[in-house]
């Protein structure tokens, strides 16, 4: 909004008063009693421009966070400052979360894991700095099936020519109105028609901080921020 436009100036003037050239100086000189109101308007406008989250609804915040994390290899390609921006939007968005997200049916469905603040949280060692030298992540998907089944799948390309699939199946348990616990069976590794189960059980705890028909936000027990996009 341009503060020097006639329509903007008329918001603070009686209908009988007209300005030929409504500028900050003319408002101050001809109508000194309006100075404080004009300055208040100018400050409010500058705050709205400098802080994009002021008076911003959940739809705008959802669009904002997706624009920051999509096509970033799950967050790997982001710089430290960009991770901070994602966290700030997530913190603002969680103010709009339903009161008991664990009971919300919107948590069910298939989700792309489009972002994690710690790249090794989804995918483990395959997503570490060393692992990424050999494995290119093609897909990270989580399916949450009613009433209590969670399936995680990571599809990797080995040196660009061989696809490897790592999958986990777990059982979900609600710890309270926000926190869930998932106990996973041993992971399964699949290469073509060959598959093998290795390792042992694992456990994760996740706080659901926001969910709607487009995205779901989660905060791991170790502080990892996740952004899931509905498929």
TrEMBL record:
Subcellular location: Plastid
GO cellular component labels: plastid
InterPro entries cross-referenced by the UniProt entry: PAP (IPR039633), PAP/fibrillin_dom (IPR006843)
Superkingdom field: Eukaryota
UniProtKB keywords: Plastid, Transit peptide
Pfam families: PAP_fibrillin
Domain Plastid lipid-associated protein/fibrillin conserved: 62-189
Family statement: Belongs to the PAP/fibrillin family.
The name this protein goes by in its record: Plastid lipid-associated protein/fibrillin conserved domain-containing protein
Upper lineage: Eukaryota, Viridiplantae, Streptophyta, Embryophyta, Tracheophyta
């Amino acid at each position: 909004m341009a503060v020097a436009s006639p329509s903007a100036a008329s918001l603070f003037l009686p209908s009988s008063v007209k300005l030929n050239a409504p500028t900050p100086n003319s408002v101050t000189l001809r109508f000194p009693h309006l100075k404080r109101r004009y300055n208040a308007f100018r400050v409010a406008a500058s705050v709205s421009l400098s802080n994009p989250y002021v008076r911003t609804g959940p739809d705008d915040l959802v669009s904002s966070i997706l624009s920051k994390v999509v096509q970033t290899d799950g967050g790997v390609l982001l710089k430290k400052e960009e991770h901070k921006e994602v966290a700030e939007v997530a913190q603002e968005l969680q103010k709009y979360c339903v009161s008991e997200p664990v009971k919300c049916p919107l948590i069910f469905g298939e989700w792309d894991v489009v972002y994690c603040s710690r790249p090794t949280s989804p995918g483990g060692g395959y997503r570490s700095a060393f692992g990424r030298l050999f494995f290119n992540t093609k897909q990270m998907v989580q399916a949450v099936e009613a009433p209590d089944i969670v399936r995680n799948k990571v599809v990797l390309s080995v040196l660009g020519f061989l696809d490897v699939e790592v999958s986990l199946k777990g059982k979900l348990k609600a710890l309270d109105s926000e926190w869930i616990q998932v106990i996973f069976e041993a992971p399964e590794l699949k290469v073509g028609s060959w598959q093998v189960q290795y390792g042992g059980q694992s456990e994760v705890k996740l706080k659901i901080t926001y969910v709607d028909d487009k995205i779901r936000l989660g905060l791991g027990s170790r502080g990892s921020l996740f952004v899931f996009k509905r498929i």
